[in-house]
Amino acid sequence: MPFAGEGATSTSYLRIAGGIAAAAAAAVAMRARRPVVGGNWKCNPDSMSQLDGLIKNIQACDTSKCDVYVCPSPIHVAYCSDKFSNGADVTPQNCNFTGCGAYTGEMSVEQMKDLGMNQVLIGHSERRGEFGIFPMDDNTTLATKLKYILDAGMKCVFCIGEPKEIREKGLDAVLAEMDVQLKQIYSLLDADKVVIAYEPVWAIGTGLTASPEDAQATHKGIRELISKNASAAVADAIRIQYGGSANAANAADLSAQPDIDGFLVGGASLKPEFKDIVAAISAAK
Ligand code: PGA
Prior knowledge:
Largest sheet: 8 strands, parallel
CATH architecture of the largest domain: Alpha-Beta Barrel
Distance between the termini: 55 Å
CATH superfamily of the largest domain: Aldolase class I
Strand content: 5-15%
Low-confidence stretches: 1-11, 23-30
Strand order of the largest sheet: 3-2-1-8-7-6-5-4
Shape: globular
Structural class: alpha/beta
Helix content: 40-55%
Bound molecules: 2-phosphoglycolic acid
């Protein structure tokens, strides 16, 4: 026999629990992913005299609805570090996993923090071996670097992407490769601190952009991998940028895809059209 009043108590309990569940669902729905666009200047420009012009392109971006960052070449990072009043984050293109000391040719997150920076990009395909005589990073060094970066209290843009031979085998092969590139970092993913930049290697600097449908399918697949191997909450909140010949002309169509949360822009980040890419995704989301 139920105690007197128990029915009423459990009814109120259910009502309260239902209310909490609805509020939690609303909070999740409201937590739309804020777009994020980065400009990767790579090893450009060839003269300091051009830097102020490039800085102006970034400074011209309306950042009210979109996070913006810029990756100057290592030698120009310090010059750029205090030049943005629109909130653009200066984000170096690499870091080590050992800090300061006897590491010739390296730069540390401690030095970046000292210059007021709070974010660093790692894993670009050009450092994974797309040029030069050997890969400067692999999935293991990158996982070590990501842990070091997060432990130091910095944020990270982590690049992944497949070469053309894998894309030609189809989406399943691409996602299998994305799983390989993400395997060692699933447990480190934190949507507030890590942005994933998906950059198909065959699209970088070639003028060949992934079609919006192909890019969407790949982003969705990456999100599903993260959901399965990290958590649904991380997958839902983490931002995944598209990179590879993104420009002002194709940004609107790509931005319309639900799993594309931003862009990592190479060539077009050296041009005034960069602000139009930021505007396109700000309008779409
Ligand atoms: P791209 O470069 O826009 O020139 O293709 C993108 C990147 O490598 O980050």
